[in-house]
Amino acid sequence: MTRFPRGFLWGVATAAYQIEGSTTAEGRTPSIWDAFGEQPGRIAGGDTGEPGTDHYRRMPEDVELLSTLGVEAYRFSIAWPRVRPDGGPVNRAGLDFYERLVDTLLGAGITPWPTLYHWDLPQRLEDDGGWAARETAYRFAEYADAVLERLGDRVGTWTTLNEPWCSAFLGYGSGRHAPGRTEPSSAVAAAHHLLLAHGLGLEVIRRHTRDARAGVTLNLFPVGAADPADPADVEAVRRIDGLQNRFFLDPLLRGEYPADLLADLEPYGLSGVIRPGDLTSISAPIDLLGINYYRDLNVSAVPDEKSGLPSEWVGAEHVGFPERGLPKTASGWDINAGALTGLLVDIHERYGPIPLYITENGVAFGDARGEDGLVEDTDRIAFIDQHLRAAHAAVEKGVDLRGYFYWSAMDNFEWAEGYAKRFGLVHVDFATQRRTPKASASWYSRVIADNGLRENDD
Questions:
Q1: Which of 335, 358, 339, 338 minimizes the C-alpha distance to 12?
Q2: 298 DSSP β-pair partners
Q3: 194, CA 20 to 30 Å: which among 80, 118, 151, 268?
């Protein structure tokens, strides 16, 4: 048996726009993803977040399902457009829903683990400049204040942001995510303003709560050279690692942007959006760092068919990502579980022994249903098993890893992929909203009960 440390936290994760539906209920106003979905061709199948998995109306049923699976913690996000519609006055009905959710979780013995921002910026704020505008960070602090005022007395762990890299560089660089802008300088400004929002949000959390833990969640990709002996490939790695990882880790944990990154992004105005005091706020001590891990990146200086503008790789649009012949997920991502060990060890050694949590790790596969309606997703079981063993290897090397959240609890709206990609432990029939746990759900329940992995059990 491969056992994790005593007290290791086992959970599942979701996000508001992906599961809640009810996008116009009880005062909620449009987010950037609602507006993005109205634009033809933006989202696969023309899908939108309505009805999602109808969680807004089915929340008690979903919490009961989580309890049945034995999960110890539930990572969810709070929808800004419900709490402060259009970024304006507080909407009591929106906060009422999250109060019911938190209380229902606590009643079921499940730890609530809310994220304040998981990509659903009120569209009205985007109309005013979005994350490229500094004012949006201050509006985020006002929103956070409303949430903490209501829920701060019963939530023990808070996350400010989820994956600011995606919000900034996919949203404002390549335009593949909402709001769909292709403005490299705006992407760089958005990344800094998101970090500033984290710092301001952290101040709000500290002001409202004495004992709660707080942190931020980043999607971090190990970056390797296609040819480590080729200086051009090594230089491409430096640039991509800077944009993907060090852009966020260094300000948060060292209080500064890397000098090489500042030089790379000088043409795009990074130094011009940094004001006195910003980095002090951004680097205020956090209690934990959430890591979302899905894949690693293999980088070459030789461009490929995906190179060029518009690109999320601001200043490095020329790089390529050559194939390695590795197995792939339904999303087209390489499966390389072993790289997770190196990532966790690298963070531990480079930035010090900060408590780490894997806040997302998951996979989409075909998930064919049998004649009995069940999904025997042995490929997903194997994926989770491999990644948990890689995580455990990092623990054995001294990494302070304290928990794991599978993405996602149930099939849902997968952003630009619509409903085409299924990541859930629970199958959702989107026509009927019927929930059916997959084979992976039962397997994960046993992992939780065992606090570990049985040998030859994938």
A1: 358
A2: 224
A3: 151
When computed from its CA atoms, the radius of gyration of the chain, rounded to whole angstroms, is 21
Contacts of 298 (CB under 8 A, 6+ apart): 224, 225, 226, 321, 322, 324, 334
Cross-strand pairs, 114: 76
pLDDT tens-digit series, residues 117-155:
999 999 999 999 999 999 999 999 999 999 999 999 999
Q: Could you give the count of Cα atoms lying within 13 Å of 263 in the half-sphere of its Cβ?
A: 5
Residues annotated catalytic, as ranges: 163, 360
Residue 333, Cβ neighbours under 10 Å: how many?
Answer: 16
| CA gap 442, 448 in Å, rounded | 10
Task: Please tell me the distance from the alpha carbon of residue 354 to that of residue 247, in angstroms, as a whole number.
Answer: 18
Q: Is 53 left (phi over 0), alpha (psi -120 to 50) or beta?
A: alpha
Give 176-205 pLDDT, tens digit per residue.
999 999 999 999 999 999 999 999 999 999
Q: What is the CATH number of domain 2-453?
A: 3.20.20.80
Using DSSP, state whether 62 is helix, strand or coil: helix
What is the distance between the alpha carbons of residues 227 and 76, in angstroms, rounded to a whole number?
40
